[in-house]
């Protein structure tokens, strides 16, 4: 029998390694290699449910945020990257500056404050195991600011902590993403802050992806972009732009596509898709997606068929490759609804404008998408908005305006329009009794710590697509604020997210938003 020649052997080896349609070997940024056949990506939806909500049914198969944060820290063996708006994992009931002040030890145990302390201790343990940890956050909130991440980094060369002020780059905005990346394989994306209250006193929603290196690596690119911004001199990389899309003058990074092509600088970040003759960030017809098989343990669905999933990011100047803006992903999720089907949307805040810009900007992207599917697809849209101690007063007017879609839909028998918008406020019990228990040695009527008792989740789900994000539904969160979303067409995740929404929607903790009075709507 003849033996194969060396050149033929090399050709055969090349074919087996690089051309085999079944096996792919990838290299991660830290030098590890993984084989798609050896890695099974798994996903769980994650919730925090405030205490004292006895009439809220639990959806089986959903994990708790506190457990997931503990696991991510406890299971990390090489690296752990965290993006946080702020840190308050450790409660301070003895600090008169704190919203926890004045509550007893028994109160704090009942509130579940120990969950935050346990997460912090797991982070300390990871740091002491020489796990390489990077902590990136906004400047924090009073009175702690960046005390907790700074303490984790103190005296530990393997732990690095940086503060990024997006106001220096965009004129306003904060780091608002809530992301954990462990060993470049496991990821949490969701609404929960690094705050003990986010674990037991605020209603949160996120997704936990385990053994998903392809997705983790892309989220890490976004993380690295933020990390790089934190180490650059913003004054050397920003310009004022006369923004024609939003009819205002504002500060942007000098590589922004809101600047004319000839006025842009060379971006220090990975390249983003260039669309010639267009200013701004247009809708992409074919944004990057992942065709990954995602197993959903505990759910009766076969993972043998891959389903398209995606990531989206904000602000648009931090995009890379061919990823879509977070705004487009929200709009596309709404428009993915089938004819006569239902879109469910949950958010803390909703405004048809900007909130933090010096000149208020009108913004109708999501409300227009909702009205469009009501008309064109006869879809039902259910919108759940938080009502809490820090409710934005003008929200009610924008919601009533959105409800007027129903009047327009039914305004003529020739419209052939049968869709509908329904909007409810979510009122977590005790929302109006939050804050310190004692102020200036005087007892208050508060029964829960400050900035608690609110539905804080940000997600949308149609009949075919689920979108889980970190951004409130206001202009600023898409154009000046750091945010990340994960979305998927995986039917098990879609179904489970629908059940979570329906449980809230049908609970006794909601109230319908009333439409505009006819006399007011047609008054001259």
From TrEMBL:
<dbReference type="InterPro" id="IPR001736">
    <property type="entry name" value="PLipase_D/transphosphatidylase"/>
</dbReference>
<feature type="domain" description="PLD phosphodiesterase">
    <location>
        <begin position="171"/>
        <end position="198"/>
    </location>
</feature>
<feature type="signal peptide">
    <location>
        <begin position="1"/>
        <end position="27"/>
    </location>
</feature>
<keyword id="KW-0732">Signal</keyword>
<dbReference type="InterPro" id="IPR025202">
    <property type="entry name" value="PLD-like_dom"/>
</dbReference>
<feature type="domain" description="PLD phosphodiesterase">
    <location>
        <begin position="451"/>
        <end position="477"/>
    </location>
</feature>
<dbReference type="Pfam" id="PF13091">
    <property type="entry name" value="PLDc_2"/>
</dbReference>
<dbReference type="InterPro" id="IPR050874">
    <property type="entry name" value="Diverse_PLD-related"/>
</dbReference>
<protein>
    <recommendedName>
        <fullName>PLD phosphodiesterase domain-containing protein</fullName>
    </recommendedName>
</protein>
